[in-house]
Amino acid sequence: MKKILKFVVIVGCFLALTGAPVLASGGGKTAKPSPDEAIAMLKAGNERFVTGKTIQPHKDAARLALAGKEDQGDHAYATVITCSDSRVPVEILFDAGIMDIFVIRVAGNVLDVDEIGSVEYGLAHVNTPVFVVLGHTQCGAVTAVTKAVQGHGHPLERNIPPLVDNIIPAVKKAIEDNPDAHGADVIPHAIEENIWRGIEDLFMASPSSRNLVNAGKAKVVGAIYDVSNGKINWLPEARTIEILKKVEANPKRAMEAMAN
Fold first, then answer.
1. Which residues in the chain land under pLDDT 50?
2. Dist CA 30 CA 177 (whole Å)
3. DSSP-based three-state secondary structure for 102
4. What is the model's pTM?
5. Strand ranges for 106-243 from DSSP E
């Protein structure tokens, strides 16, 4: 019996790391991975994409039929917010398929009310064990805001400034923290800082997200996708914990997790 159990555990770990579904005991539905397992699945999927060894899972008629019968909450293993940029095809770059990733897309991968509400849905109702804020190189939104802050902006359509105003504090901090960077050299720093700003915005406005992370039921991580080679640079998880602690000490943080 011990040998059988050991074999089952080994097979389950292999399937999780390759992005294949792991069957739950007794139900036929997929068992949710832990936060660390989900991150490992995302990393493995991106490695397959970069090395040309994709398995392109969950894209056949059987998966479509399953999607028509079952809840995505029984299958999706990650919530990801990224930019609307056409160079960042989320499921493709993670070598994932239908019902695998709950995706939120908005210019500049900013986290404002609508996006934070979507994240709360992904974490609390789709029950994904990980949330990824995925920035990317050559981000047009961050570039535009950086130029504007530096005094080289150009006129924008009336609804764009309110969309990207969340990026302004990130750009200013990037300039402050990197005094030797000038002009376009600030942009890579601003892209990363925008990710941290988004995580802080989430924690400030979403008690439910904070609670899930504090309880160990979910992780929030940052990453940057390189549009030129397909690789994802995963940012230090320790920084997320630092931001969470900072927010928990901030008296201005939202406290009521549920809507009235």
1. 1-28
2. 44
3. strand
4. 0.89
5. 130-136, 219-225, 232-234
